[in-house]
Structure formats: C-alpha cells, structure tokens
Task: inverse folding
C-alpha cells in the first residue's frame, strides 16, 4: 500500500503534522490544521551533496546596493542575491509605490527586474511609473507580468533570471489545482515556499508584498515570516506624509533598523536628515516642549515631545506617538515623588512631527515637557534631555549615549540633562548630570521635591 503523503499545516504556528487533528499539539490552538497541498513538494529542492564549511563562497551573501540610501540602511547595504524579502503594511500605505521606485532605481544600472502584478493592470502600473520617473527616460530592463499563477512566475524566473523579482501581492497568487481561496494561510505558505525555492536556486532577489490585517498579522500569525530571510514593515499615518520602513527580521544584517520616507506627488522621497525633519517647525519659546535624542534602530534622531496639563478631576493620561506604558510609569512616578506635579490633572503627551517613539530614553523628556506645561515655563532653546526613569524616581543611562549626544551637538544644542553615569559628550555640549527626577526639576524649574 502506498504511504500517505498528506501533510497538515497549522495556520497559527506553521508546524507541519503528519496526520490531521482538531488541535495543534505545538501551539495548542483549535481548528488551525489544514491540508498542505502535495504539489508543494514538487518544487522543493533537497540537496544531497555536502560541502565543507570553510569552502563555502561567502561572496554569495554580499548585498547588492539599491542606491536608495534609506533602503540600503535598513537592509545593511542592499539585497543579497537569492534572498527572499517580505514587505508588509496596511493597504494604501505606499508599499507598491516603494517597490516600484526600488525596481526602477535598480533597473537604471542595467539590471533586469520583473514586476508580477496580480492586483493592478499593467496600464495602472505604467501610469504610476511615469509619475515617479518624470522627465527621465524609462529603464528598458523592467518587465511586467500580469498573472496570478505561481507556476508562470517560476517559469519566467527560470527563463529570464532577473536580478530582482517583485510580486504585488503574494496574497493574490494561486498554485496548481489548489482550490483554497487566495490569501488563505495554507495557500500563502505553499506559494511563498515555491517562489522562495526557485529564487534561491536561481540567485534572484525576491520581494514579496503582503497586506496586513488590523491586528498587524499577515493572513494568520507568522504565516510567512518563517519562510523568508527578511521582514520589512512599512508604516505610517495616512494623515501624515511620513513613512517608516522597519526591519523586523533580517538574516543578513541588523534588525530594528529604520528608514524614513516622505510621501510626495511623484512618489516617496528618502529623508536623509530625520532630526532636522522632526524639528523643522519647533518653537522653543513655548512651554510644554522638550527635545530628546532617541534611538530609532541604530540611528539617533532628535524628536520634540509636547505636553499639555489640564486641571480635571479625572487625571486621565493620553499619549500619541509615545509608548503608553512608559507614559503611565512617568506620570505615576512624578505624582509620587514631586509635590503637586500632575496631581488632579489630565495629561496629554505627543511626539511632534509624526514621530513614533519606543525608546525608554524619552522618559525624561516626557516628564520635563509635562512639568514645563504645568508651570507654563519654557525650557532653554539649547537644552536637550535624555534618560530612563525608574520606579524610585532615579535616572538611568540608556544605550548609545555617545551617539545621542553627538546628534544633539550636531543640531546645535549646547546643554543636555543626562543621568549621572552618562559618559562625556562632544566638545561644545555641556552635560548637566542628575541622579533623580527631583534634581532635574529643581535644576530647571526650582520646584521643591
């Protein structure tokens, strides 16, 4: 009797099972197992020859620059041949525009690029390319394939062997006789696995575009993340022109690196000087503001924190662009250790300019901006602050203080309030070291602790 070759895939944790069960024995979720199509096995290449580790050609892992500085920053230099990258983000955030700009830039060097369009007609893609490539001749090495069949995409890869292939979007593709609806977890894994195998075998850099749901997952948690080398998240607020490209996973370089873009009529413009962009409209003469050098990936960025303290019996706390957990911690510590600060008042704190902060180094800026707002006392225009606040009201040093201080000095700041253990900064930047938040407030406001 022939052996049963059916496999069942968990859509939640991606574990493969030899037989069906109502419950995954790995993640313990119910109703997540679905049959994995047998046709997927036909495209999997299983090498049988070994190779000595010392003889492996490391040149295969050298990234090829895209010449788009912000993308190369996030990728650690560019795309590695044969790598598989997933670009995810909410619908309409600009993923297709970013991928098209990237394809056109790579093609300008003479490299072959193929765009697989499963959502838009070729005429729509060409119209967008014309807007992006205004007043310049369109590269001759960009081809477009209008299909939703995975087999057609792989066949084209084998015939033309482009340097890069972009699939927009992976959720639209079908595979063989699989009757699953496009975008389902099992079909997504089958399609992505087949494309990844072909790309690695042919040394084609593969970029898969995928839409995320409201909770940030892509057709089920971790459906594709395990199959790809790099996961990029394209984020932003549609009411703001800024877009953030973040590396959530990267096998060939650092993770959590961030690239900054600005949406314009002709596409996305890289923002080389993020600090200058975030501080462009700053008015240092107003109370309730403080500037902090935060770390976004490996890059220090100067960001303005704004606060509003309004007398109320509710004592509500609201944050925008700042981590709510840390904001609540800062407010609780301030109310505990500083006399009359934020007591019986609503607190609203925002990161200006569309910035989104996760860095604990912004704790001190949230506190100082809030006290400045309550006292209606502006800070010195040349003053920056940086430090994490502990539950006992102590100031703690955060990572990469030297780079943060150099960025503050580059932007013209002359003084910076920092934790006591902070190293020396660049010449021309005076450091005012404090051990507790009580010392900080006494230093700039004279408020008794």
Result:
């Amino acid at each position: 009797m022939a052996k049963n070759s059916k496999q069942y895939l968990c859509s939640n944790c991606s574990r493969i099972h030899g037989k069906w069960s109502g419950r995954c024995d790995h993640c313990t979720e119910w109703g997540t197992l679905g049959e994995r199509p047998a046709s997927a096995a036909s495209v999997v290449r299983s090498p049988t020859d070994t190779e000595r580790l010392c003889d492996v050609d490391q040149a295969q892992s050298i990234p090829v620059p895209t010449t788009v500085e912000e993308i190369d920053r996030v990728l650690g230099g560019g795309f590695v041949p044969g790598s598989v990258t997933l670009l995810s983000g909410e619908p309409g955030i600009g993923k297709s525009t970013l991928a098209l700009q990237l394809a056109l830039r790579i093609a300008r060097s003479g490299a072959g690029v193929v765009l697989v369009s499963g959502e838009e007609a070729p005429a729509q893609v060409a119209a967008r390319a014309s807007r992006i490539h205004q007043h310049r001749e369109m590269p001759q090495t960009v081809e477009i394939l209008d299909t939703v069949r995975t087999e057609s995409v792989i066949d084209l890869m084998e015939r033309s062997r482009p340097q890069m292939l972009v699939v927009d979007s992976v959720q639209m593709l079908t595979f063989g006789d699989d009757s699953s609806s496009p975008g389902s977890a099992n079909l997504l894994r089958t399609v992505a696995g087949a494309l990844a195998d072909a790309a690695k075998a042919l040394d084609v850099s593969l970029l898969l575009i995928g839409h995320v749901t409201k909770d940030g997952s892509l057709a089920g948690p971790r459906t594709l993340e395990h199959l790809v080398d790099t996961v990029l998240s394209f984020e932003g607020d549609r009411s703001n022109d800024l877009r953030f490209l973040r590396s959530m996973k990267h096998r060939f370089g650092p993770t959590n690196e961030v690239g900054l873009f600005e949406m314009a009529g002709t596409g996305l413009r890289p923002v080389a000087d993020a600090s200058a962009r975030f501080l462009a409209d700053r008015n240092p003469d107003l109370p309730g503001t403080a500037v902090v050098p935060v770390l976004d990936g490996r890059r220090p960025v100067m960001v303005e924190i704004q606060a509003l303290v309004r007398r109320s019996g509710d004592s509500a706390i609201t944050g925008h662009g700042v981590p709510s957990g840390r904001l609540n911690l800062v407010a609780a510590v301030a109310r505990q250790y500083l006399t009359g600060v934020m007591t019986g008042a609503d607190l609203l704190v925002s990161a200006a300019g569309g910035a989104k902060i996760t860095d604990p180094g912004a704790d001190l800026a949230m506190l100082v901006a809030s006290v400045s707002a309550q006292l209606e006392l502006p800070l010195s225009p040349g003053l920056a602050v940086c430090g994490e606040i502990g539950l006992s009201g102590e100031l703690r040093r955060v990572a990469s203080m030297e780079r943060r201080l150099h960025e503050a000095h580059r932007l013209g700041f002359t003084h910076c309030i920092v934790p006591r253990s902070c190293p020396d900064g660049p010449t021309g930047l005076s450091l005012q070291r404090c051990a507790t938040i009580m010392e900080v407030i006494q230093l700039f406001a004279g408020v008794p602790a």
Notes: The chain has three domains: 1-36, 64-272, 276-444. Residues 276-444 form a domain with the Ribosomal Protein S5; domain 2 fold (CATH 3.30.230.10).
